[in-house]
Amino acid sequence: MKAVEARDVVLNFGETPALRGASVAVAPGEIVAIMGPSGSGKSTLLHCLAGILVPDAGEIHFDGHRIDTLSEGQRSALRRDQFGFVFQFGQLVPELTAEENVALPLLLGGVKRAAALREARPWFARLGLDGLEQRRSGELSGGQAQRVALARGLVARPGALFADEPTGALDSLTGEQVMELLVSSARDQGTTVVLVTHDARVAAYADRQVIVRDGRVNALVHS
Amino acid sequence: MALLGLLDREPSHGYDLKRDYDTFFSRGKPLPFGQVYATLGRLVRDGKIVVGEVEPGVGPERKRYVITERGATEVDSWLTEPVEAEPNLQTVLFTKVVLALMLGRPAEEYLDRQRAAHLRRMKELTDIRRGGDLVDTLLADHGLFHLEADLHWIDTTVARLDALREAVTRR
């Protein structure tokens, strides 16, 4: 289980400040929801924590190591080997089958195709997707596609899973099924989860919620 | 009314009524026996239920309560009446915000604390929901949707706090 932390992170998009000294520490195996109004900087903070964006000032740590000072190539390797991602719209590769989509992080990590597909298959039963292994993304419902995306995010047993509005495109019942699976699968694997959501019902699945407002994490609202 | 409704299902004893009430309507907050028997006594007095045959047993005698025609009519009528649409316009939440603004106190900090308290309760209800059956789920959902509505109001209010401060201090 691995910790994720942002310390006094500042990031500007041109003249526009997005983060103005945001700090958040996520303990190993913890599930934290980042909430906040539109434009507050919550997704930007997630992208910094996940090594996608590099802050102008401040530090990002993963598993006790500073990652914002790594080269683009090193961060890319870190994301591939240690991080899982789930986005609002599954963002499955349309040319691949559901099974190949789940296996993708393993294939990119150099695992042989047969072994990668062998790892991917149990996820279909685990997430209630039996029989959909050969479907392409266009043949899946929104909830099914998001569960495939969740399996893809977790298949390589990442140290941390970053989820940006993972239920944003789903109706509330389907969204809750996805959250239930996300939380129980992450717990089973001991994966640390950072989740961005504007939906309080989704955030209530997390161990803890933090609010980002005007580019800072609101310290009063730790619950 | 819930006890009377349970008796409309079938005649029952005080102990069984309490058990059913706690199972369906009072999760985590059991109804005290005293309250059950006080309510049953009042329903008998008002002619809505009667005491049926008394069953002797090892312990104290068990009274079996039976709903009357009058009681059944009341249940029928209660089940068709909509409850008053909540919430009313003067909630404590609203009063606190307006007073804080009038008195120059930090309304935003209060709203942040309130949001944290709401989120904490939502987390508890979500945990109940995740581990429970359908009755638990629906009961928790009822609480969750209400808390969520409050949170929307809190967020909207935070966004309009400056304008609201001006409106309540100008009068």
Description of the molecule:
The complex is a heterodimer of chains A (223) and B (171). In chain A, the strands form two sheets. A six-stranded mixed β-sheet of chain A has the order 6-7-8-3-9-10. Chain A has a four-stranded antiparallel β-sheet with strand order 2-1-4-5, covered by helices on one side. Chain A has eight helices and ten strands. In chain A, α3 (98-108) crosses α4 (113-120). In chain A, 35% of the residues lie in helices and 26% in strands. With 223 residues, chain A is of the alpha/beta class. Chain A has a single domain, classed as Rossmann fold (3-Layer(aba) Sandwich), CATH 3.40.50.300. Chain B has two domains: 2-80, Orthogonal Bundle (Arc Repressor Mutant, subunit A), CATH 1.10.10.10; 92-170. Chain B is 68% helix and 9% strand. Chain B has a three-stranded antiparallel β-sheet. In chain B, α1 packs across α2 (14-25), α2 packs across α3 and α6 (107-131) runs antiparallel to α7. The chains are: A alpha/beta (223), B mainly alpha (171). The A-B interface holds A 37, 180, 200-201, 203-206, 209, 211, 218, 220-223 and B 109, 112-113, 115-120, 122-123, 125-126, 130, 144, 147-148, 151, 155, 159.
Give the assembly state of these chains.
Answer: heterodimer
Q: Which overall shape of chain B is indicated by the principal axes computed on the Cα atoms?
A: elongated
Category from helices, strands and their pairing of chain B: mainly alpha
CATH architecture call of the largest domain in chain B? Orthogonal Bundle
What is the number of helical segments of chain B per DSSP (H or I, 4+ residues)?
Answer: 8
| Count of domains of chain A | 1
Overall strand count of chain A:
10
Count of individual beta strands of chain B:
3
Question: CATH class of the largest domain in chain B, please?
Answer: Mainly Alpha
Largest interface: pair, residues per side:
A-B, 15 and 20 residues
**pLDDT below 50 for ≥5 consecutive residues: which ranges of chain B?**
none
Profile the largest sheet of chain B: 3 strands, antiparallel
H/E order of the elements of chain B?
Answer: HEHHEEHHHHH
Strand fraction of chain A equals: 25-35%
As a percent range, the share of helical residues of chain B equals 55-70%
- Assigned CATH superfamily of the largest domain in chain B: Winged helix-like DNA-binding domain superfamily/Winged helix DNA-binding domain
CATH topology of the largest domain in chain B: Arc Repressor Mutant, subunit A
Q: Main sheet of chain A: which strands, in order across?
A: 6-7-8-3-9-10
Unreliable runs of chain A: none
Output the helix-strand order of chain A: EEEHEEHEHHHHEHEHEE
Protein name (chain A): ABC transporter ATP-binding protein
Domain ABC transporter (chain A): 4-223
GO molecular function (chain A): ATP binding; ATP hydrolysis activity; transmembrane transporter activity
Keywords (chain A): ATP-binding, Nucleotide-binding, Transport
